[in-house]
Design brief:
Helix content is 69%, strand content 0%.
């Protein structure tokens, strides 16, 4: 998965355990199919692996907690109650659990408009420590790369708007490389959508 030979043994073990849990929770889940072949559905776990690779290879990040959080960033949200933040704290420690908690979208609450919930969620990310923001931005970068290739125009439009309004400001305050990548992908996706 990652070229982790340079990491100390306990850190490699932690990453392996995080990947194993991600594989278990995301088993049977798939990503949206690409335009080129609507039959081709990628196993979901490839996405958190790519998020960790963006951090490790493209950003040069060697923060094991952030890499584990990248692998685990969707396990609470997509786990249907099979794993909680408390479970993650017991297995991986408080820092990783806290990072995943910040990255986990809130469950819909009928008493609170979804826009308000998501605004609070994005504000929490903007206020989070830089490693947590980097995980979320790497997640958005991978999702935007996928969005350009997917076969769902409604999804693409929503992703474009959300990325421009919410994630480009976070990226601008966090990392120059991801900021430039997201702007480039937004421009590319917008260009594609205007030609439809």
């Amino acid at each position: 998965m990652l070229q982790v030979d340079e990491l100390q043994h306990p850190k490699r073990v932690l990453l392996t355990r995080a990947l194993a849990l991600a594989e278990q929770i995301h088993e049977g889940q798939f990503r949206k199919p690409p335009k080129i072949d609507p039959e081709l559905r990628e196993p979901y776990v490839i996405h958190p692996m790519r998020v960790a690779l963006i951090l490790f290879e493209e950003l040069g990040l060697r923060d094991t907690d952030a890499l584990c959080a990248a692998l685990l960033h969707d396990v609470v949200e997509d786990g249907n109650g099979r794993v909680t933040t408390s479970d993650l704290e017991k297995k991986f420690g408080r820092i990783i659990a806290l990072m995943v908690s910040v990255l986990t979208k809130p469950n819909p609450d009928k008493k609170i408009p979804r826009e308000v919930q998501l605004k609070t969620y994005h504000e929490r990310i903007m206020q989070a420590a830089i490693p947590t923001r980097l995980v979320k931005l790497a997640d958005r970068l991978d999702n935007m790369r996928d969005a350009i290739e997917c076969n769902d125009v409604v999804f693409q439009k929503r992703y474009l708007i959300e990325t421009r309004e919410e994630y480009i400001p976070i990226a601008e305050a966090t990392d120059e490389y991801i900021h430039a990548e997201l702007i480039g992908l937004c421009d590319k996706l917008e260009d594609y959508l205007t030609k439809l």
